[in-house]
Amino acid sequence: MGYGHVRLLAGAGAEERREAFARDEEVLVDAARQLDPGRLRAVVAHWRHAVDPEGALDDANACHARRRLHASVTYEGMVALDGELDPEGGATLLTALDAVQPGGPQAGDGRTPAQRRADALVELARRALDTGEFPDHGGERPHLTVRVDLATLRRQPASPAGELEPTGPVCAETARRLACDAGVSRVVTAGDSQPLDVGRRTRVVPPAMRRALVWRDRGCRFSGCDRPPAWSDAHHLVHWADGGATSLDNLVLLCRRHHRAIHETGHRLRGVPVRPP
Ligand SMILES: [Zn+2]
Ligand SMILES: [Zn+2]
What is the pTM of this model? Predict the structure, then answer.
């Protein structure tokens, strides 16, 4: 019997349940010898509900009151999360995280389980924002906004970083990807922060062209990837800021992970012709 087992039994035998525990001790200790701590926890919880339902409700209410989530921007621009959810909230989150990564990792997916979970949480948030069902915020549906100078999109030397609200500066290639057609709001400036294009909530690729692209590509075009269109952005083979056309022969569907791999980590698309601008 390990420490976890002993702790569960000690909790079960607390003062207010001493009589019931003395009566059932043999059965509970026997269960502790045979079960792992997770399954023993369930057995003890069921026993607890049977002998002390009011105490069990008090405990559940105390757990609910302890729920918390801290999310803060670090000096690197990361967002640090720390928190605890009650059983219902936790079950909701775990179910949604599972639902958003169906079938587990694909072959060749080098991400750790923690990285996949982080991506799934971000995907959940993005899908929620994409529905556009949240109340207006200053006349706009809330969504990610990237601010970027045209010189940055064109990779001109000494151009400023892009800016994401509220986490701050992002490197040029991230700004190029977000402006490519990532479905985020973009504010493109030219020099003196003069807004050139305020693409609020409109994708670069018009809906009819995206439908045609989805019909042609069926999902992510990265080799070996089977992510469906809902996971995918339309990527310009030659970026529109470099003169690339927003036309079917200059677009491919890429899932969020592979869109990032192409822009930020220099991966290449196999079997997809890259045309000059
Ligand atoms: Zn792209
Ligand atoms: Zn992909």
Answer: 0.84
